[in-house]
């Protein structure tokens, strides 16, 4: 069933990781996949552009269907393979509403993280200002406190939308893992630390763990003072 699926992806990219977790949860192992290098600009290769005109990763193809946006691909996989593997959209209205809310808030969370950890990557040297990076860090701090509060309300050992592992976790866990990869303090942000510890050994997440993180488990300290 997965033989007619192709995923072009980059290691450590949360959007790519979202799709990989969803594929694992839907028992779609065995899909065709190719690891590409952002540093070598392989995401701008013709191979990618043939699937994804934006020249971005992930680039995902199922048969004749191209579904490249990571959230779209996750929804697509859940819809097309609903009866297979984990049910990623809860049946209950309250849990489903919370799942959708946290999923889409997760996009803002990811943007605010990127504005800090990739500031020097995205902003040309002549346009960088300490005051701008300071504002970005303050915005990320406020966002982290918001998610700490969300998890506090849910109680210990909860997934993002309640008892069930859902698309909210598929899409937001990679952002949380990236935070700790870049040095966020699990003592200062205890609820996010608990959530990370709860899910990091889940089979779908372990199976799709970024290979360069495995090769170099230490990570960076960009966020140690946040």
Automatic annotation (TrEMBL):
Residues in the signal sequence: none
GO biological process: glutathione metabolic process; L-phenylalanine catabolic process
Gene Ontology molecular function terms on file: glutathione transferase activity; maleylacetoacetate isomerase activity
GO CC term (a single one): mitochondrion
Stretches assigned to the GST C-terminal domain: 92-220
InterPro entries the UniProt entry points to: Glutathione-S-Trfase_C-like, Glutathione-S-Trfase_C_sf, Glutathione_S-Trfase, Glutathione_S-Trfase_N, GST_C, Thioredoxin-like_sf
Domain GST N-terminal: 3-85
Coiled coil: none
Protein name, per record: Glutathione S-transferase
């Amino acid at each position: 069933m997965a033989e007619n699926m192709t995923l072009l992806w980059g290691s450590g990219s949360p959007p790519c990781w979202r799709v990989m977790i969803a594929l694992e949860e839907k028992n779609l192992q065995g899909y065709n996949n190719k690891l590409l290098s952002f540093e070598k600009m392989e995401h701008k290769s013709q191979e990618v552009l043939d699937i994804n005109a934006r020249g971005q990763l992930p680039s995902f193809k199922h048969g004749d269907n191209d579904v490249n946006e990571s959230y779209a691909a996750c929804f697509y996989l859940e819809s097309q393979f609903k009866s297979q593997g984990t049910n990623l959209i809860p049946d209950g209205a309250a849990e489903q509403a919370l799942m959708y809310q946290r999923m889409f808030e997760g996009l803002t969370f990811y943007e605010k993280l990127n504005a800090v950890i990739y500031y020097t990557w995205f902003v040309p040297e002549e346009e960088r200002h300490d005051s701008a990076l300071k504002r970005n860090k303050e915005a990320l701090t406020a966002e982290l406190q918001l998610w700490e509060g969300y998890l506090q309300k849910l109680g210990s050992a909860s997934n993002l939308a309640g008892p069930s592992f859902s698309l909210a976790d598929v899409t937001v866990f990679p952002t949380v893992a990236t935070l700790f990869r870049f040095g966020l303090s699990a003592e200062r942000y205890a609820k996010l630390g608990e959530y990370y510890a709860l899910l990091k050994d889940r089979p779908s997440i372990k199976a799709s763990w970024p290979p360069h993180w495995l090769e170099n488990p230490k990570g960076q300290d960009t966020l140690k003072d946040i």
